[in-house]
Design goal:
Elements: H1 3-8, H2 16-48, H3 56-80, H4 82-101, H5 106-134, H6 138-170, H7 174-177, H8 179-193, H9 208-231, H10 236-256, H11 266-270, H12 272-302, H13 307-313, H14 315-333, H15 339-356, H16 365-390, H17 400-437, H18 444-480, E1 487-492, E2 501-506
Antiparallel strand pairs: 1-2
Subcellular location: Cell membrane
InterPro entries: EmrB-like, MFS, MFS_dom, MFS_trans_sf, Sugar_transporter_CS
Membrane topology: Multi-pass membrane protein
């Protein structure tokens, strides 16, 4: 047994729980950024003179850079070391946020958002893979991933509250500046506290063709869905993006099966448990992203809530996610197989979504929205927690970064698909409703009521799709994921050498 393995067999790093605080803080910052900017977008658009046609680029520039570079970021974490990549990502994200907060025109704003995406793509996989290599005891891993899963699931809703406060009481620029203290504290803490276990680097030369093909393929895919939302599915550029994405990603898979040191080793994807996690998580995020958008508009436009009140209205969902992840998921993960948490979790979330299909213009928050949000939160929290842990469990340490990047990629692509697909369904149903009912409106007040009813009709039509998608996620989780409950064991192939044997959670089939 080698010296690396002997070290690995020693006592776990005493600072691992302190490290979790800073990793969780960084993850919260990245997730917050996804929704906090949406709340501030109308104010920023007015201030900077951004046209209606160009405003989507505030969101799209970030999504393209983040989604396109995630696999590259995961590989960089494996090559450079996760701690170094994590700190660099935080520093870059802080600088990009400062640039966005100080933006004086649309070009500066779009550039800052793209830079945030670039550094986010370094930061996110490094954070998850650090957890994977630092927490190897099954019970501790369950707790650590419970906290991480709660933040990954509930952070977006927290962003709505914080974004509402900052926009309403300070200025939209603070939705960018607020990232700086998060990043500084997380980077300083990580630098002094995190001790990355040795022997987990992947020092193989960088697969440049893989980087180029995967980045261009993912950018084309995310942009195709983003453009479909505004220009339509039959738009020539939309279709071209989808065709280009299919060709590029198909070529990428072919190249990865041939090169000696692939960017994404196909063994990471083809293991049925990880494949099931990536697929079911991506589907669940499709449903969740669309829901956040619809409920935000419903509460503000139909019910007349302020941005702050809208944010607080999402609190039951956050409470449900935290409870599902840190209480239900963490307590049961070491006792039952992951699929018995993921499958029922997605079904409970689907039940919450099913309640929302009853939404009307006069629906009561307490009677309908509150119970549906609690069910959604509980279900998603319970399902996300084992999914996050399983996505890197049993993977060789040298592949931890790229396996973590695949979790983020499935969520990012799922978010882009969800926003475009469910928005298209909602828009079609809204238009059809107006066409059928506007003729019966005899006054401006009645016409306005028809418009609101049409919006809600659109939302409920899209939510029916989301229910089906969540049921499909549950079926995939139960069918594909066949891992047993985690036990402590010894497996070979730690990445430090074929002869090394390092204890990590193994999957009992």
């Amino acid at each position: 047994m080698s010296e690396t393995a002997v070290k690995a067999l020693g006592v776990p790093d005493a600072n691992r729980w302190k490290a979790l605080v800073f990793i969780a803080l960084a993850q919260l910052m990245v997730v917050l950024d996804g929704t906090i900017v949406n709340i501030a977008l109308p104010s920023a658009q007015q201030d900077l003179g951004i046209s209606d046609g160009n405003r989507q680029w505030v969101v799209t520039a970030y999504a393209l850079a983040f989604g396109g570079l995630l696999l590259f970021g995961g590989r960089i974490a494996d090559l450079w070391g996760r701690k170094r990549t994590f700190v660099l990502g935080l520093a870059g994200f802080a600088l990009a946020s400062a640039l966005g907060g100080a933006a004086t025109n649309e070009a500066m704003m779009f550039g800052s958002r793209a830079l945030q995406g670039v550094f986010g793509a370094l930061l996110a996989p490094a954070a998850l893979s650090l957890l994977a290599v630092m927490f190897t005891d099954a019970k501790e891993r369950a707790k650590a991933f419970g906290i991480y899963g709660a933040i990954a699931g509930g952070g977006g809703a927290i962003g709505l509250i914080l974004g509402g406060f900052l926009t309403e009481y300070l200025d939209w620029r603070w939705t960018f500046f607020v990232n700086i203290p998060f990043a500084v504290v997380a980077a300083a803490g990580a630098w002094f506290v995190i001790r990355e276990p040795g022997g987990g680097r992947n020092r193989s030369p960088l697969d440049v063709p893989g980087v180029v093909l995967s980045t261009l393929g993912l950018v084309a895919l995310v942009y195709g869905f983003t453009r479909a939302e505004s220009a339509g599915w039959s738009d020539s550029v939309t279709v071209t993006m989808f065709v280009a994405s299919a060709v590029l990603l198909g070529t990428f898979v072919f190249v990865e099966s041939r090169v000696k040191a692939p960017l994404l080793p196909l063994r990471v994807l083809t293991e049925r448990n990880r494949g099931g996690v990536y697929l079911s998580l991506g589907l669940a995020v499709i449903a969740m992203f669309g829901l956040f958008l619809f409920l935000t508009y419903y509460l503000q436009v139909v019910k007349g809530y302020s941005p702050v009140k809208t944010g607080f209205a999402f609190l039951p969902m956050i409470a449900g996610m935290v409870t599902g992840s840190t209480q239900i998921g963490t307590r049961l993960m070491t006792r039952v197989a992951p699929r018995l948490l993921m499958g029922p979790g997605f079904l409970v979330a689907a039940l919450g979504m099913l309640l929302l299909t009853q939404l009307e213009t006069g629906s009561s928050y307490a009677a309908l929205l509150l119970p549906s949000m609690l069910l959604l939160g509980l279900g998603m929290g319970t399902a996300f927690m084992p999914a996050m842990s399983l996505s890197t469990q049993g993977v060789e340490p040298r592949d931890a970064g790229v396996a973590s990047a695949m979790v983020n990629t499935s969520q990012q692509v799922g978010g882009a698909i969800g926003t475009a697909l469910l928005n298209t369904v909602a828009a079609s149903a809204t238009t059809a409703y107006i066409t059928d009912h506007i003729g019966s409106a005899t006054s401006p007040a009645q016409a306005q009521l028809v418009q609101l009813e049409a919006m809600v009709e659109g939302y409920t039509s899209a939510i029916w799709f989301a229910v089906g998608i969540l049921v499909l996620a549950a079926v995939i989780a139960v069918t594909f994921v066949n891992a047993g409950r985690p036990n402590m064991g010894v497996i070979a192939g730690s990445g430090a050498g074929a002869e090394d044997e390092v204890p990590v959670p193994v999957v009992a089939h």
